Amino acid sequence: MLSRLSRAGIQALSRARPAGPRSISLSLASVLRAATPFAVLRSAAAWLSLRSGWQTLVTSRSNGVGAISSYMIHAGRNFFCSCTNATDGDNNNKLEAKISVTFVDKDGEEKLVKVPIGMSMLEAAHENDIELEGACEGSLACSTCHVIVTDVNYYNKMEDPVDEENDMLDLAFGLTETSRLGCQVIASPELDGIRLALPAATRNFAVDGYVAKPH
Amino acid sequence: MVLGLRILSRAVGELRPLLVHGPTRGFSASASEPLHVCVVGSGPAGFYTAEKMLKGHEGAQVDIIDRLPTPFGLVRSGVAPDHPETKIVVNQFSRVAANDRCSFFGNVTLGRDISLPELRKTYHVVVLAYGAESDRSLGIPGEDLKRIHSAREFVWWYNGHPDMCDLSPDFRNTESAVVLGQGNVALDVARILLRCKTELATTDISDYALDALRGSTIRKVYLVGRRGPVQAACTAKELREILGLKNVRVCIKEADLVTSPADEEEIRNSRIQRRVYELLSKAASAHKDNNYKDQKELHFVFFRRPTRFITSENGSKVGAVQLEKTALKGDEVTGKQVAVGTGKFEELKCGLVLKSIGYKSLPVQGLPFDKTRGVVPNLRGRVLSCESETATVETGLYVVGWLKRGPTGIVATNLHCAEETVEDLKNSPNSYTVSVIMVASILEDDKKGVLRPPSNSEKHGRPGLLEILEQKNVRFVPFSGWEKIDSKEKMAGQPRNKPREKITTWDGLLEAANV
């Protein structure tokens, strides 16, 4: 329930496509409004890990999403969770919960990274130097962050892609039945252990970028 | 072919670590010496190539030249003003231009300011990425009548391209416009004609275009395609958008939606075609019962091809398009369905025609060119001296993007075109076929010592280019010059609530760049 709450919020934010600098500054404003101490600390950590001022500016939207989702989880725990599974003690040791994600690159090389809950896989890839392109920076206007969920069980745990994501997946190179856009896959507890493969060019010789059997 | 594929995938396997991790020790004796690369064209193909070269070779020094003072090619002059998210990629391209080993030279025209042979003497590697700046023509009577424009000209016009600022299309004397073609560019121009002007007022559309559109009397737009809804070349996102336009009634004939077994097979084999067909079917039934008086109308006209343009009463302007009904027939060679005429004709009255039937590349002196296909003959990106079997590879000359593949595909298609290695595939109009090795070819050739043989005279790279440009008195625009243009445009846009107010003349751009 917690993850769905944050996911709903994030999907709503993701769907609000940016229209240039104004919306980036709007996102920044909403980030500031939502800032809690650990969200600010996390955003600061993200800021420091980025290489250039430009990257900071343009990924601030997705950072904003991460910060807001962290806030919502925090809010969720306080107001909605009367269950005993998650205790405050769990959070005392780290700033926030993380899941394990393995990225498999085009050569088959694997990299295991820790992704904070609420962060998109695209952002996680960039923070860990994984070569995942993100031409439109999470605006659902390209297909360059295309990833393949290697285990269909994890694919089924996610909610179906919305029309806008499917429109972009149509154009993705090396599309498969378990393909998603990395900017739309948000880390949540049930995705712990997920493996995401980057599409490999040489396996595919298909017309229209589509290889697997029709679905 | 299979053997070729195997050899290729082995070659790719060797090259991939190179692309991912960069050159390792023992890569080549000349790794420490710079590899001088010139990329002609600063659109997505050019910038992705520059990016992959910089990543893949420590010694690469990349110069990007463009005939315009502004970089980014069609991202600036082709992507529609109401699609700002598609333009976000310029952030990534700007980071490439900011790399120490990369320099941008705007206002430098290949052929005029510097010749191809001069470039090949100055650089180890020349990559042609200058796209397609001309149009396919229909070749039918009346094509040169007034009020008939190519979509490329129209798009350049509303996007403020300095070559088209004086186009002055007339929207005041007619209520009907015909767009020939049903690809995404056709949808773009139809949408700009039909979109509510207050929505356009907060985009980066050029100011004169916004003024002209505000006075437009065009109420009906016809999108005419030779084949059926199953073969429509547009994609789901753009179709969904135009079908949802405010105050626009969509007209699609139910009879056109009937599918043949061959159509069903096409739908089964292509996810894109299936989703496009479903959208069109839904739209046909959704709008059937609504009565929109004085509303704007968008008509999808299928199975019609234009055979002549008919003048209006005054004689020099177009007044109607003669259309011939078509039927689909399987082509034995390609296996695709092609449109053939049935001999039944009709006329469609209109006062404006936009031809959106495809772009075409222009040849350049000293460059082998396939006039039929409108591309540069190449093998895996390496330019060939001609199309025949006895062709030789032109050392150090490569081609990427639309100039290589033909003018189809999106921004992201250039990513793979620049990066990856697959066998050369025959292009079909709708495919996002990945053409062949770009950077992988270049790196492979460098490793083999092809690009820098000891006997070869020295290449001077950037200093050499600067010397030539100085001799010819060329006022080139560096990336910092573009940044000046950029910030002036953004400032001018602010009071009008636009992301930018584009500077649309050559003089204006060069002045703003302070050169």
From TrEMBL, chain A:
Pfam families for the chain: Fer2
2Fe-2S ferredoxin-type domain segment(s): 99-202
Annotated InterPro entries: 2Fe-2S_ferredoxin-like_sf, 2Fe-2S_ferredoxin-type, Adrenodoxin-like, Adrenodoxin_Fe-S_BS, Beta-grasp_dom_sf
Gene3D superfamilies for this protein: 3.10.20.30
This protein's GO CC annotations: mitochondrion
Domain of life: Eukaryota
GO biological process: P450-containing electron transport chain
SUPFAM superfamilies: 2Fe-2S ferredoxin-like
GO molecular function terms noted in the UniProt entry: 2 iron, 2 sulfur cluster binding; electron transfer activity; metal ion binding
Keywords for this protein: 2Fe-2S, Iron, Iron-sulfur, Metal-binding
Cofactor(s) named in the record: [2Fe-2S] cluster
Full protein name: 2Fe-2S ferredoxin-type domain-containing protein
Species this protein is from: Paspalum notatum var. saurae
Upper classification of the organism: Eukaryota, Viridiplantae, Streptophyta, Embryophyta, Tracheophyta
From TrEMBL, chain B:
E.C. code: 1.18.1.6
Binding-site list for NADP(+): 182-185, 226-227, 238, 409
GO cellular component: mitochondrion
Cofactor(s) needed for function: FAD
Catalytic activity line of the entry: 2 reduced [adrenodoxin] + NADP(+) + H(+) = 2 oxidized [adrenodoxin] + NADPH
SUPFAM superfamilies xrefs: Nucleotide-binding domain
Chief localization: mitochondrion
Domain FAD/NAD(P)-binding: 36-204
A Pfam family the protein falls into: Pyr_redox_2
Binding residue positions for FAD: 45, 74, 110, 402
Annotated localization: Mitochondrion
One MF term in the entry's GO annotations: oxidoreductase activity
Keywords, comma-separated and alphabetical: FAD, Flavoprotein, Mitochondrion, NADP, Oxidoreductase
Family membership: Belongs to the ferredoxin--NADP reductase type 1 family.
Protein name, entry field: NADPH:adrenodoxin oxidoreductase, mitochondrial
Organism: Paspalum notatum var. saurae
